[in-house]
Amino acid sequence: PADTRGAAQKRACSAPAAVTDVARLCVCDLLVAQCDANCCCDPDCSPEEFSLFTTCSVPVVVGDSHLCRQKAAVYSLDVEANPPERIFQLIDQVSPSIFCIHATNYKQALYLRCPEMPTPENFDRLLNEFGSAAFSAEPEGWNVDTEAPNPPDANETHSYQYGAPVQTEDAFLRLPSPVVSSWCSDANPAGFLVNQATKCIRSVSVERCESIQGLSMLFYINSSILAVPKSSQMVNVTVQSIVVQSLDGRRTLLEGGDVLKLPLALGELCLNIVLGVSYHITYTDTGAIVEAAAAFVLGAITKEALSVQQSFQISFTQVNTKPVPLSGNPGYVVGLPVRAGFRPQGYPFLAEFLTNKHSQLTILQSTPSQDCLAAQGARAPVLFGYNMISGCKLRITAAMKCQPLAQTLLDVLKGQSFPEYVASFGNSQAQDVLDWVPITHLHSSEQRLPNPSQSSCQVPVSLGIEVKWTKYGSLVNPQARIVNVTATLSTTTLKQLPSGRERIIPVTSSVVFTDISSPAEPGYKAWPTINIKLPFDFFYPFV
């Protein structure tokens, strides 16, 4: 009977009362009515058994680490006692993060909600509620007063907010992605200002390729984008370019890329199927979309192919601005380039920084020939956290003049335009002048006493860059910040070579990263100083 199944379900879903007393919590207590080895919080262990422990496998037990202040149970062993004893302390622990939970006033979150089991009576209702790709997960306890009067335009949004789905005339802009497995799901909406890149696998067949929506260009551009949510102003998705990929992987840019090419089954091949889509959205500072473009990669499949891998990505650029690649948000990410730039000439104050061509700090790039003249102009970006060294060799003859030789080596070491400033954060903006660290230049000379009867020449032979950085902000999620950059140029004195003689000198360039963070004080329990940098778009769209 249905009432019997309901009663059995209630008994199966009944859970014991939630334990919030940390003195009673013990995650290492695995054996029932037995003492677990080195589990200092196990209530089944006797003092004699505690004396045999070598360490406490769980020294600290807390309830919820997201709470601002909570009780913590601390366990340790007094090995100097005879026999050794277990020590238990109950202390107040303060979270170092400024983003923490002050109080857990939602009691339902402490319990596991028992899911409703399907029955012949409720199966259709559950299928309609949970059978789609997305469904609401709001608990029943979150009631909304629908009878309260709404102010005018309360439900209208006149601009996109960060992360909001980009709306189209029929639903939203789709960015296919893998959900549970690696197969493509077209139910993933593109979020405003959220740069994404996904790859997934789609089932294909030559016989049905013309009818599979996800393989057609039309599927990705047929719906116009709403300029702002819930508006009648539309922005059409234009075709920016089309690249055709052959079966052996070669790619060719198609001239006249604005032509719509649909899948075409031709014998044992299916042509013009979508292998990749790259959206580029242009928006205003008020959160309105003004332009949308899509670049396609089209290819072909054979009759033997059962699936094809597709790649999708989307990027956003504000109107009248140039996209600047970031190396972190806000702190630097290991392996990303160190950003650098210049100060405009003639400004009495630091007004704005003009970045170089690639907005990066670079060093000499080694070449297979190890020839400095061949390596002139070849630069490698300095990657944050990576110590690097490179070099080359220069052949010197008696006919070479001193000044041109010194200038050539200087150009090899520093490049045509060595930057003046380095960004202290990975997302430092050009207008934030305090976020840029000046590069300190030092000179080191290797003294050699030349023969008084011979002329000498002083030339640069090495450039060493030291980047000092520190952990900045919250102790829970510290951000890497550059605080000092020093470039040391070393020179040596060369004697004038006799006629017909040659000499080879090595030229080296190196980068060293030094962490100068101060270690945290042991036993520190007070609130740390709030010294953080928020992402530049944290208060978007407000300034």
From TrEMBL:
GO terms for biological process: cilium assembly; protein localization to ciliary transition zone. GO terms for cellular component: MKS complex. Residues 159-319, 328-515 form the Tectonic-1-3 domain. Residues 12-122 form the Tectonic-1-3 N-terminal domain. It comes from the Eukaryota. Keywords: Cilium biogenesis/degradation, Glycoprotein, Signal. InterPro entries: TCTN1-3, TCTN1-3_dom, TCTN1-3_N. Pfam families: DUF1619_N, TCTN_DUF1619. Part of the tectonic-like complex (also named B9 complex). Belongs to the tectonic family. This is TECT1 protein. It comes from Sclerurus mexicanus (tawny-throated leaftosser).
